[in-house]
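User: Could you write out the 3D structure of this protein bound to pyridoxal-5'-phosphate? I've included everything you need below.
Assistant: Certainly. Input first, then the structure.
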Amino acid sequence: MLNVKDVKKDFPVLKNRDVVYLDNAATTLTPDSVIQSLKNYYQNLGTSVHRGIYQLANETTEKYERARKKVADFVGSDSPREIVFTKNCTEGINIIAYSLHHWPEMEGKILVTEMDHHSNILPWRFMANGSEKFQLEYVDVTKEGRLDLEDYKSKLSPDTVAVGVPGISNVVGTVNPIKEMTDLAHERDALVVMDGAQWLPHRKFDISEYKVDFLTFSAHKMLGPTGLGVLYGKEDLLCRMPPPFGGGEMVLKVDRRKVKWNDPPQKFEPGTPPIAQIIAFGASVDYLNELGISEVNEHVDRLAQRAVNKLSEIPYVDIYGPKEGESRGGLVSFNVEGVHPHDLATALDSLDNIAIRAGLHCAQPLHEVMELNSSARASFYVYNAPEDVDRFIDAIKEAKKILGGADER
Ligand SMILES: Cc1ncc(COP(=O)(O)O)c(C=O)c1O
């Protein structure tokens, strides 16, 4: 079990600011060890990577590649060549969509789900619009906020090129049946692109278990620095895919007409990378490993379940997504009758410094399906305690009294 009191001490923001931070699905706070790693790069290293042939540059490159190895181990990949560093999760999916679209043999259907974040919809839509090569279709979501597997099976056809799916929905929190979906997709030779932005921060992921072809996630949602994401891709695919961006270090040979791409991951990492962030992300992975990802998972899911249970007892609150623990990951979205989520979020902030998210959470198609204009969302992480959930619940009741009148039912 996590010792939240001790964990909290590692997060300077929680010492410096009076905040109950429940917006972790957007971005997590940064522990001391990661901040120190960033500082260490600028104070003691400061050079580029893969370019210099002097000792200092070699040391930076060695630390940088060690971080890549840690990330590979974290997702169960045998080869750091399968780990491409990107700007964020969004950029990773854009790279995949572009590359598949520009790959001569790839032609047919792209299946995404109604619960995908815009990040796993729009890159595909950009490629499908005005092109004969890709047609985009959506897998339905049930009223309960689960993927409709029968609909998925019926839409998976022999011409399906790729399936995009969030491991965990950032709105309804649903943990999707990735293994089953991947097996079904592979039976039809379709590739699977898992958006792991909400999974990787608090759930064990092993590529040998889930077997997806591509996985993307963001460092800043798992204690790491901003400006950094990860694209995992199976090595043989990365070797064959055309890269979307050109520039330094991504080529082995260039003359005035021809070019020979470098091997992955460099092929997809043109220009000077975010070196400090990558090295510091290694420290985030260390921190999570020290806590134990299973303990993190248990803790975060327990907090989410506590919130779901307590919200369920309030008659004027509507909760979205599955109610039971094992199919919900780390967050809860809801609405308070008669109170706009923006007003609710502002009230929680001013009443008790409680930070939640309100709006559409970059998932407008899902809100359209659920017939909602917007929703409020609380999401939990390693430094949140059960008391934070209780303060959040008390503040909702207080806000309702102020904004929407006392409940009269
Ligand atoms: C499920 C999901 N996918 C993708 C993203 C995009 O992440 P980023 O903004 O770091 O690219 C988010 C961010 O909220 C998300 O929740």
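The mean pLDDT is 95.
User: Perfect, thank you.
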